[in-house]
Design goal:
Blueprint (H helix, E strand, L loop, with lengths): L9 E8 L2 E8 L29 H11 L19 H12 L4 E5 L5 E5 L5 E3 L2 H9 L6 E4 L1 H6 L15 E2 L10 H6 L4 E4 L20 E4 L8 H12 L2 H25 L7 E10 L4 E6 L5 H7 L3 E2 L12 H4 E5 H7 L3 E6 L9 H11 L6 H4 L3 E5 L8 H12 L9 H12 L22 E2 L5
Parallel strand pairs: 5-6, 5-8, 6-7, 8-9, 10-12, 10-14, 14-15
Antiparallel strand pairs: 1-2, 3-4, 10-11, 11-13, 15-16
Organism: Methanomassiliicoccus intestinalis (strain Issoire-Mx1)
Protein name: Periplasmic binding protein
C-alpha cells in the first residue's frame, strides 16, 4: 500500500494558453524517486513511471533516469504506448502534465491498454458502483447519462439526495449485449465509465469506427475489489485538478481505515470462517443461493475484514465474469460448509434509513440455515448489496471486523468513519449542518443488520 499520501500537497497550476487550461500536478513530498517500481501500482496510467499515486514531475525525473540507465524500466514508462521507451515518452508525459496531450493511456480492468481522448467534457455511468465512484471525486458535473438502474433510483435512493439530477438522462441497459447501440451513439458522450468487457457493453468497442466512437473507461469499481485504483485512475483520466484532489482524499481515507483494520487484526489469533451470499427465490423446502466468489467485491470485503472465506477455492484465478464470480447453489451448500458467519446481501443498494429491508432479507434466509453454527450463534449478518463492494466496501469491512473481532476493535468507532464517508464522498448532507433534522447520521442508517446487535 502506498504511504506517500500523508503530508502531500497537490498543487494545481492553471496556465491559460491559447484558450486552453493546462493543469500541472505537483507532488511536494520531497521523496526521492525509487530505483524500481512496486507491483501494486494503483494509478494505472501510462506515464506514472515511479509507480506512486501521482502523475507529476517526479515521473519525468524517473523516466529520464530510465533513459540514462539509472532507474529500472517498467511498463508505465511507455507513456505513449508505442511499445518502446525513449525521449518521445518524456515529451508525451510533458504534454499530459501540461494538459495538451490528445489522449491518455491506461491499463483497464481486463488488463488491456486503452486510452481516453482529451478533454473529457461529458460522461455516462453504467451500474451503481460506478455512480458512487463518480460522486466520490465530485465529477457529477459532467455526468449526463446513466443506465436505467441508476436512473430509476435517482429519486428513491437516499445516497443521491442532494445531487442535481436534472440533466441526467437514461440510455437503458449496458448489461452484457443488452444495450441499444444506436441509443448509445446518440448520447454523443465523450466516455462511458463501466466495468469488465465480459459483463458490460460486451463487444461494443468492435462496433465503433475511428470517426465515431465513445471511450469506454473500464475500471475495477467493484469487480476485483480494487476501488482505490479505480477512483484515482478515473480522476487522472478525466484530467480535472478538483477531481484529482478529491480522489487523493478518498484513497487517503481508505488507507486510514485499512491501517486500523490491519492493526486490529494483528491481535486476532484465529480467523472466523464466512460465506457471503445473495439470496434468490425460495420454496417451502429450498432456497436459491448465489455464493460470492473471488472478483465479486463482496468476497474481497470479507477478506479485508480478516475473515477466512470458505469459497476461496472457487474462481482461484479471479476471472471477471458472471459465470466465475458467482456460484449458484442452494442452502445445502452453506449447511455443508457450516461457516462461523454468513453474510447475506439484501435487496437494494446504498444507505438504508432503517433496518426493515435488511431484516426482511434476514427472515427469508435465516430460516433455511437454522442448523448452522452461524444461525445458532446469531452470526448471520445482512448488508445492502451495494455496500460490500464499491466505494463503501472499506467501511463495511470495518463494521464486520468490529463485529466479528469485537475485543480487538473495542476502541474503534465504525460509525464515525461511515459519517466521514457520507459527509465527504456523497451529496447526502450537502448544505446541511449536523443539527438539521434532515442530516443523515451514520448511527441511524441500519448499515448492517445483525440480530445479536439489535
Amino acid at each position: 500500500m502506498n504511504n506517500k499520501l500523508v503530508a502531500i500537497i497537490v498543487v494545481a497550476i492553471l496556465v491559460v494558453a491559447g484558450g486552453a487550461i493546462a493543469v500541472i500536478y505537483s507532488n511536494n513530498s520531497g521523496t526521492d524517486n525509487k530505483p524500481s517500481v512496486a507491483s501494486d501500482i494503483r494509478l494505472v496510467v501510462y506515464g506514472n513511471a515511479n509507480g506512486d499515486d501521482y502523475l507529476d514531475n517526479n515521473d519525468l525525473t524517473y523516466l529520464q533516469n530510465v533513459l540514462d540507465g539509472k532507474n529500472e524500466e517498467n511498463k508505465f514508462c511507455d507513456t505513449n504506448c508505442d511499445g518502446k521507451t525513449n525521449q518521445e515518452d518524456v515529451e508525451y508525459l510533458k504534454a499530459i502534465l501540461a494538459g495538451t496531450a490528445s489522449e491518455i493511456y491506461y491499463e483497464n480492468l481486463n488488463g488491456n491498454i486503452a486510452s481516453v481522448r482529451q478533454p473529457v467534457n461529458t460522461i455516462g455511468a453504467d451500474y451503481w458502483p460506478i455512480m458512487y465512484g463518480i460522486m466520490a471525486i465530485g465529477a457529477t458535473d459532467i455526468l449526463t447519462w446513466t443506465d436505467s438502474g441508476i436512473y430509476n433510483s435517482l429519486s428513491t435512493n437516499d445516497i443521491y439526495r442532494g445531487l442535481d439530477t436534472s440533466n441526467i438522462r437514461n440510455f437503458g441497459s449496458g448489461f452484457h449485449e443488452g444495450y441499444d447501440f444506436e441509443t448509445i451513439m446518440s448520447t454523443n458522450l465523450d466516455a462511458i465509465v463501466c466495468g469488465s468487457e465480459d459483463i458490460y457493453f460486451v463487444g461494443i468497442e468492435d462496433k465503433f469506427s475511428d470517426e465515431s466512437k465513445i471511450d469506454m473507461i473500464r475500471l475495477p469499481f467493484w469487480e476485483g475489489g480494487d476501488v482505490s485504483s479505480a477512483v484515482i485512475t478515473l480522476a487522472y483520466l478525466l484530467g480535472n485538478s478538483e477531481y484529482i484532489e478529491n480522489a487523493h482524499k478518498f484513497i487517503e481515507f481508505q488507507d486510514r481505515i485499512q491501517k486500523i483494520i490491519d492493526d486490529g487484526l494483528s491481535n486476532v489469533d484465529k480467523k472466523e470462517t464466512v460465506l457471503v451470499t445473495y439470496l434468490g427465490s425460495s420454496t417451502e423446502s429450498s432456497l436459491e443461493v448465489e455464493v460470492e466468489c473471488r472478483g465479486s467485491g463482496s468476497y474481497e470485503c470479507s477478506i479485508i475484514a480478516g475473515m477466512n472465506n470458505l469459497a476461496s477455492y472457487l474462481n482461484q484465478e479471479g476471472k471477471l465474469s458472471s459465470d466465475t464470480m458467482y456460484y449458484n447453489t442452494d442452502q445445502e451448500y452453506i449447511i455443508g460448509k457450516n461457516p462461523d458467519w454468513v453474510i447475506i446481501l439484501g435487496s437494494g443498494s446504498g444507505l438504508f434509513p432503517n433496518e426493515d429491508k435488511l431484516k426482511t432479507s434476514y427472515d427469508v434466509g435465516a430460516k433455511y440455515l437454522v442448523t448452522t453454527s452461524a444461525a445458532k450463534n446469531n452470526q448471520i449478518a445482512v448488508s445492502g448489496s451495494g455496500i460490500t463492494s464499491g466505494t463503501m466496501q472499506m467501511n463495511t469491512a470495518l463494521y464486520l471486523a468490529c463485529t466479528v473481532y469485537a475485543d480487538a476493535f473495542e476502541n474503534v468507532d465504525a460509525d464515525a468513519f461511515l459519517q466521514e464517508y457520507i459527509d465527504n464522498f456523497t451529496s447526502v448532507n450537502n448544505g446541511l449542518s449536523s443539527t438539521d433534522s434532515d442530516y443523515l447520521k451514520a448511527d441511524s442508517t441500519g448499515f448492517i443488520y445483525i440480530p445479536s446487535k439489535v
